[in-house]
Fold this sequence. Notes:
This protein has three domains: 3-297, Rossmann fold (3-Layer(aba) Sandwich); 323-381, no CATH class; 385-514. It is 34% helix and 18% strand. It is built from 16 helices and 18 strands. It has a five-stranded antiparallel sheet with strand order 8-7-9-10-11. A five-stranded mixed sheet has the order 17-14-15-16-18, with no helix packed on it. A four-stranded parallel sheet has the order 3-4-5-6, covered by helices on one side. Helix 1 packs across helix 8 (177-186). It is α/β, with parallel strands linked by helices.
Amino acid sequence: MSVAAAIAQCLWATGNVPSAVRFARALGNPEGVQERWLQRRLRVDAESEFGREHDFAGICNRRDFVRRVPLRDWQEHAGWIERIRGGGQGVLTSERVGHLAPTSGSSGARKLIPFNASLHRAFACAVGAWMWDLIRLEPGILGGPAYWSISPLAQVEEGVQGGVPVGFAEDADYLGGWKAGLTRLLMAVPSGIRHERNPEVFWRRTASLLLERRDLRLISVWHPSFLDLIVDAARRHWDGILDGLSAPRARDLRAAGEDNPGGWWPSLRVISAWGDLAAEPGLREVARRFPRCRVQAKGLLATEAVVTIPWRGGYPLAVTSHYFEFLTPGGDALAAHEVERGGTYEVVVTNGGGLWRYRLGDMVECTGFLGRTPTLRFLGRAGNTSDLCGEKLAEPFVAACLGELWPEGAGRPRVAFLRPWLSSGGGRGYFVVTDEVLGEEVIGRLDALLRRNPHYDLARRLGQLEPLRIGVEPNAGFPGRPNDLRRLGDVKPMVLDSVVSEGGAGEGCVEEKVNKN
């Protein structure tokens, strides 16, 4: 690594200390920290159009806030955001909005998320605390470059003339300020590669640039399958890539072997990726391929907000970055300090970018506490349900069934999710889509677990739903959309693809079997 990069590495690590200290202190007093965050935000944005409409100046406490500001999803923010896109400022927030970040979420059309200086700082604060804790665990990551994949195959759109641009010029811009500049110096792969529109060129160039870096220390991707695709590209273009590298580096890689990715980067210390729900088998496969690395499951992050970060072995709420509420099944909105261990909630966030009481759409379970701050586990998407004939299968329930079918992940295929289907003849049911063949006994056990849902059981007994079918998609990596590379930075791991397939498992399915039970 160059002297400039080494200096940048030290400055970046040192710059994360204040975020880590604040976060560590905040864990003991989430109520006070969250209340102060909210009051500060209300003061800052009191003169925005949204603030005046909802009388932010007259809000004295959380109860006032809940009473005067209704819960909203993105569609209910969309009109305000469209005005920002057209060049309007002082709309949702008093601060200048510099960019609108596009995200599609797990389903549905593109959403645009306003980013201002406060939201940049919120992300930087959460990432800084996380990385400082990771450095504590693996100080060796400071010795070399890192690969961060945030939004591959993206582009900046100017939109209407004089409007706010859509997208970021570089991934580092998510952090904003001086940290973004330092981050650029530490990237093993230049962020500009994400503007490559040809997928095969994108994968080859990414693999080539990574193989060049013998001193690579950290890999951070979203879905574990993203790393699989890089490894696969390296294998497809192995000889050509090595011919373009220095002789010593090519010699090292040939000695390691193209079938041994765990030996390609001898200094690699950490791989970070999603590890919840459908991503869990993929993360286990990463750990098998890279046995000398620490493989860490990410916290719960979205374009709109950081919900949890890895910290001291848990995943506590990012209490210093945003203001959070948690909706109970009965519709009550709880503050962070009011959630209970074992409770399940829908996440509501107010961020510094102008999203107010925003229903993020993620369901979580409180698994415990660090200090007095809840630790959370992602359960699935709120409202991600499938209802062909009244069975009302919800993603958290499907996730629980799959977890019980393969306890501790033992024997679980890399990909396994449910997809509903309908035929022109009136038949309907569900595929278990996997990347490997499952025995009928396994499918029978899964059907029995699903039948604990009384509506699903009744539909099966009445013949409204046919027995589970097995759909094998060898290249499945992202449920239902394995080749849509534009979505790789957006899609959370799913175990229920609610998009109905007409008559078959869908594009890419090469084998279908029917469970006769």
